[in-house]
Amino acid sequence: MKQTSKAAVPYIIWMSVFIVIPLFLIGVFAFTTTVTVDAAGNIIDPETLGYMDGAGIDRETGELTADESEEETDISWVTFPLTEKTIFTLDNIFAVSDYLPVLFLSIWLALIATAICLIISYPLSYMISRMNFQRQNIMLMLVMLPMWMNFLLRTYAWMTLLERNGWINKLLALIGLGPFEMINSQGAVVLGMVYNYLPFMILPLYSIMTKIDERTIESAQDLGAGALAVFGRVILPLSMPGIASGITMVFVPAVSTFIISRMLGGGTNMLIGDLIDLQFLGNAYNPNLGAAMSLVLMIFVLLCMSLTNQLDNEEMESVLL
Amino acid sequence: MKKYIKIIKPLIALSLTLMMFSPVCAPAAASYESYEYSDYDWDRFRGKNMSVNVYNWGEYISVDDGEEDAFDTNKAFTELTGIRVNYSNFASNEEMYAKLKSGGSSYDIIIPSDYMIARMANENMLEKINFSNVPNFSYIAENFRNNAFDVTNEYSVPYMWGIMGIIYNKTLFDESDNPATWDILWNEKYAKDILMFSNSRDSFAISLFRLGYSVNTTDENELREAAAELSKQKLLIQAYVMDEIFDKMGGGEAALAPYYAGDAITMMEDNPDLEFVVPEEGTNVFIDAMCIPKGAKNKEAAEMYINFLCETRVALKNCEYIGYSTPHIAVYELLDDETKESISYPSEEALSKAQEYITLPSDTTRLLDSLWTELMSQTGKNPWLSPVLIVVSVTLIIFINVRRYRKKKTREL
Amino acid sequence: MKKITSRFYLALIFLFLYAPIAVLIVNSFNASKSRTVWTGFTLDWYRKLLTNETIINSLGNTLLVAAVASTVATLIGTAAAIGIYNMKKIPRSIVLNITYLPILNPEIVTGVSLMLLFVAVKMEFGFTTLILSHITFCVPYVILNVLPKLRQMNRNLYDAAMDLGCNPTSAFFKAVLPEIMPGIVTGFLMALTYSIDDFIISYFTYGATSQTLSITIFSMTRRKVSPEVNALSAIIFAVVLAILLVMNLRDAKLRKNTRRVSGERI
Question: What is the ipTM of this complex?
């Protein structure tokens, strides 16, 4: 079967073109910026040429193309044509430092969301794993089913629930409570993260817990271990790989989300994902800065990943990261 | 050193004495059903499997909303010409600019606002329109031609115009306060009850108006002062919105919000508690115009679409549906008096205080962008942030090392 | 007591998971366009859904992209898994590490990087870019599902088939493929699901002509989600629920039968 390693060739080509090169491009963008230069190679701020509001200058020839200019600027030192040039710079990377508080806020909210997911899912997964086979399947199905609905719609539905005139406040009003301010807060953003990524925590935990043999627990009990000891010495260590992959699967999408914060946080709690989107397709176009932010985010996430990987070196043995 | 040419057209020109236009231009378009499109070769692309890609603001065209006399603009265009329309939305000028600037997009028609048109024309991002393919341009009022943003009128055909103002919810608003001032958006009484624009140009304009500066200032100190005011205001803001405002103001989620007059009319129809005022300090008056971006594949079809949007029936339907003010003479003639006196057609006094946005020099744009990003990324101070992060990372490191150590020990055993 | 607590806990979690879904379904029958005011029961939105071209078109686009992307991803991924399985240790770990990248990397970074690539090669955003990027993030899921099946397979199976007179191709199709088929099917289904559900990567790579359902819903969530979308999601929910129920029942029946057959012997 030696020859069959060639079967991976199309994939390796694909991978190089669509994974390696794009990531390389992010690096390129992060370390460059585009400037206007004249024929002699001098860097020029186009504004010094004063071609605002129709009173323009032809970039090729240097001719004035409009006649409404009120004052003349001395442009005799500029040699035409003007061209755009990409130069190396560290400015973007330095500029990311200004936005570290946003990164910290994203990490902070993602950590809280991950912790809540873990706390909710752990007992749940354990309960499901101890049910009979038929019911396990039904329970898993029920956990997965909401995932089939579009995630934007689910988040939007949460808006309907949490709003000032939303369903929850209307229900509470019936028993004379409220109204509470729930939407447009960091709490709402965390809730959105927990809701959207909860199944990613439940599934790995569940699959690792079904592997824990009931007899292991029983023998620990026979040997005199109390409930706490059974949990601390048997169940927890055995479920560690599941915890690790669960944390990764919740934390990574949560830290980089850009739409949950916009919908539930009202735009006042901007996360690093929003910031990146803002630079590429948003209101402050600057792909170079966006690429630098993406680079920082990516390095941070891969670093976290290598940390959690330490927790379960069995599962992904072949991964060096 | 820096040269900056200001060409603000005398604003009073905008205060359009539209009433002076002779009604001769207006064709009889009393009944839509019997309406005949103007004499134009609409059929020349039929059967050629053509399509145009239109990129427009959200809620900025008439669609079939299930009402009795609903008019679906794009469907009507396809029926008339056989050209399919791929229609998509943007939420702000800056967003549209980013999408086009980053490359790879293939739109045939875009509808940006004045200052953005000038910027895109400067950056060589727009095609010159062949006006012989847009005979309906003759309907566009004189004072909407050769605008400051397109002096020679080569790139744009005005679609709608309007002004910015403040929308407030009467039931949530204290009557003793004066809503007709930008300062109300800084009133702590309405903390978490205020919505604000999620685009830099409009937000900065409000702050600059309030401070009494020009909205087109290039003075760094003035802009920084405006930014500082905005960041003070951030504590009072419920949410930064664009199109989301329809939902939030319509549903009574917030008390106050700045927005455009035309959309205010739409919202007031949904929610009768809403009112619209034009602040005393002055406001922005804008023109949104149809343009063809560089690289459009079907330029002639795009011109046909632009001409179609200037058809009296179509322009009237769109005008009625979106509530903005029309630069189309024949449409204006057809409007009833109630509409002509509505907030869409503000008084001369309000218009005399209004300012147009003009394209800012690119270093000012850059400054604005970075101030905006800074404002958006300001987060409430959270003293727990760093201690908890430190504790978490330290625990993690200890935990991992203990585990490793234990494992090593077991292996040794 | 313990049972009651755990029941209560389960109920709470399912309430949390299904509350938004309930909102969507209830609103799909709400006569009012408002999300929070109930004015009466109607089936209008379901009727209007059929004539809403924007939604139907984008649904079609979504299904088309998902079908093409997951099929191609399955082909490339299966071949890749077989190749990787037979690689030497070092190249294998390099390839695997890069394979994990799109899964581990934040989606927004993948999306942005693909956008930069398409812009750099001056490709126009549209179906092609959308499908290419969907294949890219789908392939790893196929590989990761097929590889374990290959590891479980008896290495001698292929050689035995060859000894029995198969040529390499027929040995693969007759001996190897049936063994790894479950992995391929799971991989395909996962790819299909992820592709249908994807928003972030599509957001950075869609073009004027190729709006998927996620993109359409996104532009709607910024102003008002039309109730037709609620109707559509209620239908999707019902369909998925039905499929899962049928699969579950069939599974249960199958298990019952096998237990009956093999039960006595064990």
Answer: 0.88
Q: What is the mean pLDDT of residues C49-68?
A: 92
Domains identified in chain A, total number: 2
Q: Which of A90, A120, A145 is the last residue of a domain?
A: A90
Q: Are C86 and A5 in contact (CB under 8 A)?
A: yes
Q: Over the stretch B5-55, which tens digit does the pLDDT of each residue have?
A: 333 343 334 444 444 443 333 343 334 455 688 888 898 999 888 999 999
Residue A133 near chain C (CB below 8 Å): yes
Same domain, A258 and A158: yes
Please give the pLDDT value at position C69: 97
Residue B259's CB is within 10 A of a number of other CB atoms, namely: 22
Model pTM greater than 0.90? no
Residue A32's domain spans which residues? 2-90
Return the minimum-mean-pLDDT range out of A242-246, B276-280, C252-256.
Answer: C252-256
**Which residues, including other chains, have CB under 8 Å from residue B11's CB and lie 6 or more apart?**
B285, B351, B352, B354, B355, B356
- Give the 3-state secondary structure of residue B239: strand
Least-confidence region, from B9-13, B81-85, B372-376: B9-13
Whether residues A78 and A215 fall in one domain: no
Please tell me if residue A284 touches chain B, with a CB cutoff of 8 Å: yes
Residue of A nearest to C23 (CA): A157
Which residues, other chains included, contact B324 with Cβ-Cβ below 8 Å and sequence gap of 6+?
A: B60, B160, B161, B162, B260, B261, B262, B263, B288, B344
Whether residues A204 and A273 share a domain: the answer is yes
> Quick check: is A316 in a domain?
no
pLDDT over 80 at A7, yes or no: yes
- What tens digit of pLDDT does each residue of A299-310 get? 888 888 877 776
Query: A268 and A234, same structural domain?
Result: yes
Residue pLDDT, tens place only, B297-341: 989 999 999 999 999 999 999 998 998 999 999 999 998 888 888
pLDDT at position C143 over 90? yes
Mean pLDDT in residue range C88-105: 88
Class of domain C53-225: mainly alpha
Residue C262 has what pLDDT?
Answer: 52
Mean pLDDT for the stretch of residues C120-124: 91
- Chain B, window 30-69: residues with a beta carbon less than 8 angstroms from a chain A beta carbon: none
The CATH number covering residue A291 comes to 1.10.3720.10
Q: Which domains does chain B have, with CATH numbers?
A: 16-162+286-351 (3.40.190.10), 164-284+369-377 (3.40.190.10)
- Is the distance from CB of B88 to CB of B68 less than 8 angstroms? no
Report the SS3 class of residue A269.
Answer: coil
pLDDT in tens, C189-244: 999 989 998 999 999 999 888 899 999 999 888 777 888 888 999 998 999 899 88
User: Within 13 Å of residue B330, how many CA atoms lie on the same side as its CB?
Assistant: 21
Q: How far apart, in whole angstroms, are the C-alpha atoms of residue C64 and residue C196?
A: 10
C248 to chain A: which residues are within 8 Å by CB?
A: 137-138, 141
Cβ of residue C121 closer than 8 Å to a chain B Cβ: no
Size of interface A-B (CB pairs under 8 A): 155
Q: Are residues A26 and A137 in the same domain?
A: no
Q: Which residues of chain C are within 8 Å of residue A313 when distances are taken between CB atoms?
A: none
**Which of B49, B88, B263 should one mutate to test binding to chain C, selecting the residue with the greatest count of C CBs within 10 A?**
B88
- Which residue of chain B comes nearest to A270, CA vs CA? B377
Would you call A283 and B122 a contact, using CB atoms and an 8 Å cutoff? no
Is the domain of A81 the same as that of A111? no
Whether residues A73 and A100 fall in one domain: no
How far apart are the CA of B106 and the nearest CA of chain C, in angstroms?
Answer: 6
Q: Which residues, at least 6 apart from B84, have a Cβ–Cβ distance to it below 8 Å?
A: B50, B51, B52, B78
CA gap B365, B217 in Å, rounded: 11
Put simply, the answer to whether B362 touches A45 (Cβ < 8 Å) is yes
Q: Measured between CA atoms, how close is C245 to chain A, in angstroms?
A: 8
Domain residues of chain C, as ranges? Answer: 53-225
A207 and A85: one domain?
no
Single residue among A90, A114, A138 that ends a domain in this structure:
A90
